[in-house]
């Protein structure tokens, strides 16, 4: 992690108490901590009832009789899309803008809640006409355009389950996710805009569905890039044509609170991504509650912008469900931060008067590198709350963010959470918390976090340990799609015998004397590249699937800009090794990984080596490779089967 070593963090002395002005208008207050501390379940029941509309009220808040399978608000009935749309229109807010959409080439659209509701109703009718019903899976592979939001809400509205696949993933990744979820329908676009060009999407869907029997019956195609696409008659349909002829009326049906809402694939410690399952009532409760309290949302006056893509959990919870459940006005931007100029994000903030801004440390660090002159050229005075997510934010980036983007006054909330947790779990609350740069601070009201040692006992400051969530929470994952055993083993078995059923997050953390939590990065083989999760095993299996590769080991090496970077060590098959130069082999393998997984997984560096460091039982010692990749003195090699290997590898890299 960039400069987030425990030593540098422990010396971080800067403190930022809330201003009186901010506190006097803040949504959050000490009272919600007190309420949750007195009656945790009562607090969540209250949030569920005050923030959402229930078609049928629930009588039991939590059923934890069969851990780790939780049920929240189980006998309640709810429609997620109705909560995000119709009720705002019925409350007289139909004319409020839901989405200010900004296309990368400069086109834009502002869509009100009334308009968005009609679009979703039409899309829901299209889905029904294509035979999609409650529980069916729909894959969504779209750029950041309003149709992505419409598609997700239309699926939710009819009780079906979406699985959104980030547009940067390859055809191969798309195929494995469509297969795993047995999706009946794919919603895609011809292409989208990125870095000044149209990137094709429909072709990847065609590739994913080609030459094999698939559960997919239809492909709905949004027209955006206007690039040429192949067409499979009978299977493919244009979104705009279908929507134009669909009925604009659709009554939202109430579904059980535990009706599945979506599956989102994320990387774990094995080569196969996990389909994280989230359900309806509990998920919507916690995303709405955290969105309101953590960002101090005043829906009638704020303009909110979260820069995440809807293909990630941050996009699900804090672009789609949280903001829309709260009736917020938000910005949605299609493209990259530096197209067509490096001030594009700041220009958008100025144009729409964005007041709440939520992004990732990797973006902040890249802006720091370009220099303050760029943001200083725009009027950013509308900003009043700033958020950070995805990886630890180093104190220097935190302070820069507050000073240069937030005018030296905007509170910065560092929010820790995961695909699995569904919503924010640890964060300060603006107007209440005295902020500390570099620390994610405290569990939000109603959440119980502990830091445990290997033996399952609580670790006292200043020691580090493993982060666990000790009590179930409303937006918790309900399972791994199709794999209850992996769900149990991955998250719940770690401390079971030692201290009961607790959720093991996979992160290391440390608590300071004030009780503030400092995240120290993953303790497993999951990497964090620019806030995106990738597994070492997934990239290793992509590398060994290439005909020239005999063996591969991948590590995440500390990187100034991206937090971590993918570094691979590869042994070539001896017959193949001579057929190309090392540079050619490296170039070939880098693009192979991009084709297999997606450009985000492309290794920054590949070293061709003759040996890999292994223990006597044959386990690759990635820790030692990480030492090499980070240019550190190599650690303890005594458990290696052959202790000379590290010397050979280091010599080779000189
Ligand atoms: O290691 C933690 C890191 O990101 C992981 C979760 O990744 P993902 O499921 O892709 O979700 C990212 C967006 C919620 C965590 O296990 N992480 C996320 N936020 C933070 C963080 N690490 C430190 N500080 C954060 N604020």
TrEMBL record:
CoA binds at residues 194-197, 314, 530. Keywords: Acetylation, ATP-binding, Ligase, Magnesium, Metal-binding, Nucleotide-binding. GO terms for cellular component: cytosol. The keyword Magnesium applies. One of its GO terms (molecular function) is acetate-CoA ligase activity. ATP binds at residues 390-392, 414-419, 507, 522, 533. Belongs to the ATP-dependent AMP-binding enzyme family. HAMAP family: Ac_CoA_synth (MF_01123). PANTHER family: ACETYL-COENZYME A SYNTHETASE, ACETYL-COENZYME A SYNTHETASE 1. This is Acetyl-coenzyme A synthetase. It comes from Marisediminicola antarctica. The lineage of its organism: Bacteria, Bacillati, Actinomycetota, Actinomycetes, Micrococcales.
């Amino acid at each position: 992690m960039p400069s987030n070593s425990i030593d540098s963090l422990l010396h971080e002395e800067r403190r930022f108490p809330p201003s009186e002005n901010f506190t006097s208008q803040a949504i959050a207050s000490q009272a919600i901590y007190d309420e949750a501390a007195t009656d945790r379940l009562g607090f969540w029941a209250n949030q569920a009832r005050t923030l959402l509309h229930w078609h049928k009220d629930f009588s039991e808040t939590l059923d934890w009789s069969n851990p780790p399978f939780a049920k929240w608000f189980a006998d309640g009935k709810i429609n997620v899309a109705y909560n995000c749309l119709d009720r705002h229109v019925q409350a007289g807010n139909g004319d409020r803008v839901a989405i200010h959409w900004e296309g990368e080439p400069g086109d834009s659209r502002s869509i009100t809640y009334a308009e968005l509701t009609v679009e979703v109703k039409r899309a829901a009718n299209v889905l029904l006409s294509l035979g999609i019903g409650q529980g069916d899976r729909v894959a969504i592979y779209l750029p950041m355009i309003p149709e992505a939001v419409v598609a997700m809400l239309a699926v939710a509205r009819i009780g079906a389950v979406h699985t959104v696949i980030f547009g940067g993933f390859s055809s191969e990744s798309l195929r494995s996710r469509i297969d795993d979820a047995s999706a009946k329908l794919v919603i895609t676009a011809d292409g989208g805009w990125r870095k000044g060009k149209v990137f094709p999407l429909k072709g990847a869907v065609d590739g994913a569905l080609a030459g094999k029997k698939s559960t997919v019956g239809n492909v709905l195609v949004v027209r955006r890039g206007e690039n040429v696409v192949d067409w499979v008659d009978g299977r493919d349909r244009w979104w705009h044509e279908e929507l134009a002829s669909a009925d604009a009326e659709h009554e939202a049906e109430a579904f059980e609170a535990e009706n599945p809402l979506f599956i989102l694939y994320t990387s774990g410690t094995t080569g196969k991504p996990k389909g994280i399952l989230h359900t309806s009532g509990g998920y919507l409760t916690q995303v709405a509650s955290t969105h309101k309290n953590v960002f101090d949302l005043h829906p009638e006056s704020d303009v909110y912008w979260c820069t995440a893509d809807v293909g990630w959990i941050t996009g699900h919870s804090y672009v789609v469900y949280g903001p829309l459940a709260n009736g917020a006005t938000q910005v949605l931007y299609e493209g990259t931060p530096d197209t067509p100029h490096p001030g594009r994000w700041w220009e958008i903030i100025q144009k729409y008067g964005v007041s709440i801004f939520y992004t990732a440390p990797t973006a902040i660090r890249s802006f720091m590198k370009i220099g303050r002159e760029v943001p200083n050229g725009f009027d950013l005075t509308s900003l009043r709350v700033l958020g950070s997510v995805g990886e630890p934010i180093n104190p220097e980036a935190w302070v820069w963010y507050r000073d240069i983007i937030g005018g030296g006054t905007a509170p910065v909330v560092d929010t820790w959470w995961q695909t699995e947790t569904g919503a924010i779990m640890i964060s300060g609350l603006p107007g209440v918390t005295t902020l500390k740069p570099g620390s994610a601070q405290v569990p939000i009201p109603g959440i119980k976090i502990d830091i445990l040692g290997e033996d399952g006992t609580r670790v006292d400051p200043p020691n580090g340990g493993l982060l666990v969530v000790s009590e179930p929470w409303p937006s918790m994952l309900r399972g791994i799609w199709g794999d209850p055993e992996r769900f149990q083993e991955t998250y719940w078995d770690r401390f079971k015998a030692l201290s009961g059923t607790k959720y093991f997050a996979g992160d290391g953390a440390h608590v300071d004397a004030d009780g503030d939590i400092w995240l120290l990065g993953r303790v497993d083989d999951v990497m964090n590249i620019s806030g995106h999760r990738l597994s070492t095993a997934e990239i290793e299996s992509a590398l060994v699937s290439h005909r020239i590769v005999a063996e591969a080991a991948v590590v995440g090496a500390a990187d100034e800009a991206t937090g971590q970077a993918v570094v691979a060590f590869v042994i070539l098959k001896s017959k193949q090794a001579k057929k190309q130069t090392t540079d050619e082999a490296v170039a070939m393998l880098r693009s192979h990984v991009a084709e297999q997984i997606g450009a985000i997984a492309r290794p920054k560096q590949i070293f061709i080596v003759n040996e890999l460091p292994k223990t006597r039982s044959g386990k690759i010692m990635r820790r030692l490779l990480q030492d090499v990749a980070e240019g550190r003195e190599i650690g303890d090699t005594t458990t290696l089967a052959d202790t000379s290997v590290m010397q050979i590898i280091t010599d080779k890299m000189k």
